[in-house]
Design a protein that fits this description.
It is a single chain. This protein has 2 domains: 3-79, Methionine synthase domain (Methyltransferase, Methionine Synthase (B12-binding Domains), Chain A, domain 1, Orthogonal Bundle), CATH 1.10.1240.10; 91-213, 3-Layer(aba) Sandwich (Rossmann fold), CATH 3.40.50.280. The radius of gyration is 18 Å and the shape is globular. The protein is of the alpha/beta class. Helix content is 57%, strand content 10%. The protein has a 5-stranded parallel beta sheet with strand order 2-1-3-4-5, sandwiched between helices. It binds cobalamin. Cobalamin binds at residues 42, 45-46, 48-49, 52-53, 59, 62-63, 66, 100-107, 109-110, 146-148, 150-152, 177-182, 197, 199-200, 203. Cobalamin binds next to helix 3, helix 4, helix 5, strand 3 and strand 4.
């Protein structure tokens, strides 16, 4: 097995100690942190989700796999940030996973990548009440609002947030970027959000593009 497959398997197995050990070794061997993240760690979580869908994995196991990811991110995050800072695309961003949805690992990666690109990020976490998101936009006037949903049913909170922003007269001053595994470009078009990105890396150029549109 390749080192990436070994890392994926350790995450899939929910083995925190092994994940940390393998990630540290890969870094020491000069492997790319981005590759470890995208092709090792995230793949392990995806495999775990696929196992859950097939009834081979259960919630406590998904939780153990997500803990592996968190442990590994402690090692990787500083390496992703070092050497890439760039203030060109700077702007203020609020990030939140919508109400009713506890998934926040992917959004944390988006936060890391945006910070790396020079954005000032307010990370509100998961299961954030819609009223808190609206209040934060009102109080902090960010250029961007990033919303995440991992569940097919919580995606539907996104258009509710958009219409409340409109009702509060905030919609024209903030660009809304959406993401999360079930969220796609067609959904973005359908609900009238400003942008969608597939993953944390592609969220950066998308955020810069949206920021530039505000002038
Ligand atoms: C870990 C996990 C959990 C953990 C979450 C821990 C945490 N703190 O996040 C726990 C165990 C708590 C959990 C719970 C549940 N989960 Co869960 N979970 C997962 C799993 C395995 C991995 C998610 C993950 O972290 N992926 C890795 C990250 C890096 O990827 P990502 O989240 O997609 O994020 C990337 C992109 O989507 C994008 N992105 C994400 N957000 C944003 C935002 C913006 C603005 C942008 C631009 C981009 C962007 O960038 C990210 C980084 O590259 C997925 C399987 C999967 N394939 O995703 C299931 C999955 C999401 N869960 C699922 C389910 C059903 C549940 C539960 C309902 C189970 C239950 N019966 O209770 C509960 C939900 C409870 C709730 N109310 O929310 C289903 C959802 C099915 C659906 N489409 O509705 C999945 C797909 C599993 C499956 N295949 O069935 N889960």
């Amino acid at each position: 097995m390749s080192y990436l497959e070994d890392i994926s398997k350790a995450v899939f197995d929910g083995d925190e100690a092994k994940t940390a050990e393998l990630v540290q070794k890969a870094i020491k061997d000069g492997k790319s942190p981005q590759e470890i993240l995208d092709k090792g760690l995230v793949q392990g979580l995806r495999d775990c989700g696929a196992g859950f869908e097939k009834g081979q994995k259960f919630i406590p196991e998904m939780l153990m796999s997500s803990e592996c990811m968190k442990v590994a991110m402690k090692v990787i995050k500083p390496l992703l940030v070092v050497g890439k800072a760039d203030t060109e695309g700077s702007g203020r961003v609020i990030l939140a996973t919508v109400e009713g949805d506890v998934h926040d690992i992917g959004l944390e990666l988006v936060a890391t990548m945006l910070e790396t690109a020079g954005f000032k990020v307010k990370f509100m976490g998961a299961d954030v009440p819609t009223s808190d998101i609206i209040a934060a936009v009102k109080a902090e006037k960010p250029q961007l609002l990033g919303l995440s949903a991992l569940l097919s049913n919580t995606m539907d909170v996104m258009p509710v947030i958009l219409s409340l922003l409109k009702k509060e007269g905030l919609r024209d001053s903030v660009k809304v970027m959406i993401g999360g595994a079930p969220v796609k470009q067609d959904f973005c078009d359908e609900i009238g959000a400003d942008g969608w990105a597939y993953d944390a890396s592609s969220a950066v150029p998308k955020a810069k593009q949206l920021r530039a549109q505000l002038g």
